[in-house]
Amino acid sequence: MHPDSVAGPKQEETGLTASDWARTLAVYRQPIPSRSLFELTVTLVPFLAIWAIAWWVLEVSTVLALVLAFANAAFLVRLFTVQHDCGHGSLFRDRRLCDWIGRVIGVITLTPYDVWRKTHAVHHASSGNLDRRGIGDLPIMTVREYGEKGWFGRVLYRLVRHPVFLFGVVPFYTFCLQNRLPVHLMRSGWRYWLSAMATNAVIGLALTVIVWLGGWEVLLFVFLPTMQLAAIAGMWFFYVQHQFEKTSWRHEEYWNIRDAALHGSSHYALPAILRWITGNIGVHHVHHLACRIPFYRLGEVIKDHGFLAQTNRITLRESFRCARLHLWDEKSRRLLSFAEARVLSA
Fold first, then answer.
1. Nearest Cα to 193, choosing from 185, 205, 204?
2. What are the residues facing 268 on neighbouring strands?
3. What is the C-alpha to C-alpha distance for residues 63 and 69, in angstroms, rounded to an integer?
4. Between 20 and 30 A from 272 (CA), which of 68, 197, 198, 297?
5. Where is 294: in which H helix or E strand?
6. What's the chain's Rg over C-alpha atoms?
7. DSSP letter string over 81-100?
């Protein structure tokens, strides 16, 4: 079903609170084993097949190999969504099965599974909380905080929030460098270091075999293009899920996890092909309300509940404006551009 064809909100839905919605959505939590296996297969098998074809084609045409590598980024993004569901224990009923599938996919996505699962849990537990920023989210300042910074602090924040840096440099740094060492979890126990080091070892072994069999060209024209484009796409989707004009940020005393989930996460209403590629992760407000819902059932929720279909709805065209929003205004409760904040402060 196309996002524009969803039904309008029912009268009885408009009065439901975020907690009411969390209870209502519990009926969608059960995974369907055959469907989960199907979704895993139609994502992993094409990814490996296109990877192999791009490698083979490289001897004939570098351009064609690059085209295939870029196209394969779509399946890598979807693999990350599958890994994401494993982290929430929503792909299969067996938590251990989810974890081991997640760890295997984590090698492909360059993401140590147990480390990511920990930081992502922190993200869910603190999303929209102004007093608990810093882990599993993107840097965000309020208008007041930005105004209190010196010139260097402002320049640094502008650099970090610039689209070229945020969607060009940060994705490569996150997946290729930051994920290699869980420095931010140094005091959280040995399992996260084991996760990172074991993942690094398998990645290192796989890349060594690839170079040995195919040469450095395979890394440069197949591996890296797929990884970088997928990382950029993933960073963009993560950004739009929480960095939109009417999102929600509150201080601890006024913050509520259910309200933050419903009002601080977007419904990124994408065309059908992009919804499939991203595993419905654009239905992010529903995901934060009930993270145990399998990704393939999120569309079902939107179809059944018109209120949720319209809540925080952002189209693909509208989403590009989000890249210009950088500062949270606590008075108007909106995310503003630097220019809007400057006018507000004048």
1. 185
2. 314
3. 10
4. 68
5. none
6. 21
7. HHHHHHHHT-SSS-HHHHHH
